[in-house]
Amino acid sequence: MSKSxxxxxxxxxxxxxxxxxxxxxxxxxxxxxxxxxxxxxxNLSGYFKEKVSITLYLKNNMSDKQQTELKKFLADKDYTNKxxxxxxxxxxxxxSKDIGEDFLSFLGDNPLKSYYEIRLKADFVNPAQLVYIKxxxxxxxxxxxxxxxxxxxxxxxxxxxxxGFWLIVxxxxxxxxxxxxxxxxxxxxxxxxxxxxKTMQMVGATKSFIxxxxxxxxxxLGLAGAFFAxxxxxxxxxxxNHKLPALALLEDVKVLALVxxxxxxxxxxxxxxxxxxxxxxxxxxxxxxxYF
Amino acid sequence: MSQPVLYxxxxxxxxxxxxxxxxxxxxxNKGEFFYLIGKTGSGKSSLLKILYGDLPLIDGVGEVVxxxxxxxxxxxxxxxxRKIGIVFQDFKLLNDRSINDNLLFxxxxxxxxxxxxxxxxxxxxxxxxxxxxxxxxxxxxxSGGEQQRIAIARALLNDPELIIAxxxxxxxxxxxxxxxxxLLNQIHKSGKTILMATHDYxxxxxxxxxxxxxxxxxxxEVVHQQ
Lengths: 292, 226
Known about the structure:
heterodimer; A: alpha+beta; Alpha-Beta Plaits; 2 domains; four-stranded antiparallel beta sheet; 4 strands; about 10% strand; elongated; B: about 230 residues; alpha/beta; 7 helices; cell division (chain A); FtsX_ECD (chain A); FtsX (chain A)
């Protein structure tokens, strides 16, 4: 009889711990998704920015040596990501392909110029930097004109800024909600032990001695929650990666490690701080105040 | 001349800014046993709370086990309580752990380090209250009388200079009350100072001791008729 009651009590206790771990897991999962989105958003915006190119039309009659020297000059620039050389002939072929007819046959002469197409690094793709780069390049004796799609860069920069701003606002709101939810889960679990805390004080235990096991216990629950949240997050990433390989979710191990590390760090910091504050609150109350 | 373990002089006791007891003037010397009697709500528990630091002494002079009550700081309260053994009406055992662990908690919390010494102390106090074979049990597996004996054993762990018992028999049947009282009487005979709040007059008649009465906001000594 007593054994079965004991088992029943243990099961009830385990169930209450399970519900705390479950709510911590859900909140941390949300934090993880948020972190992943924010980190991946930077990569994604970088991906689009690095599609922007600047085309350098070259003056006619450049020697091969001069072309090579110019290529080296361009490759040494901080902003250069990739360089592609397109000769007059290639340019004509590409243009003919684009318009669907051989324009050389009725023009007789190739009016197009050889050019270098420079793909820029993401950090340099913004309207101000591009104006400066264009001016600097056009000073070069071999470059006739530097051209890029300015309205596209303006639009891209504006959209990335807007999306980034709202992502940060959304992330902050969700992070705040997460901290509140975790805090209330921990606080409720400590609230249920407020009379135990008072008894501990009555037998001569100091506040720090009483706080320690509550903080450690909460951090343990937090770590369990972090473990489950990370496992679920990685599982979902694996599934998404399978369906949408273009997102390359599993390729960047650094980002994943950062997200999982962030989940564990948030779990430890939030649960420890919440347990500290909740315990401190009940330690300050007098016996009569515990009933309110 | 014996030294007072506690004294109060011109002490006024407030709870939430309401005056509960006024002009308290009494002292208890080492080795004495005092009853504190009075109706429910008369202020007995408030007086005891002042003595173990759960309420501050705002007005008046007082000292308990060499701690000055008016100047008692928050940080000193745990150390004051280590020199006092407190027994409550509702036992106040830690229900999430066994009896041994309840007692072990107190020893660890009060600075004991040596495991062997801790276990031998636990055996000693459990033997003193006659429950040496119940250490493995959970508090809820014991009867009320047994739980109160454990609470008394817990109070004895640090060899306190004063035992404060706040209606220790209030939740017990008359037979068990007598057993607990007999235990407290034995502890007193071994040299401990005890202040016990009660309104069980049959116990006072069976174990007569000096008695303070709390009535109409005042505390005065009652002279027993022989």
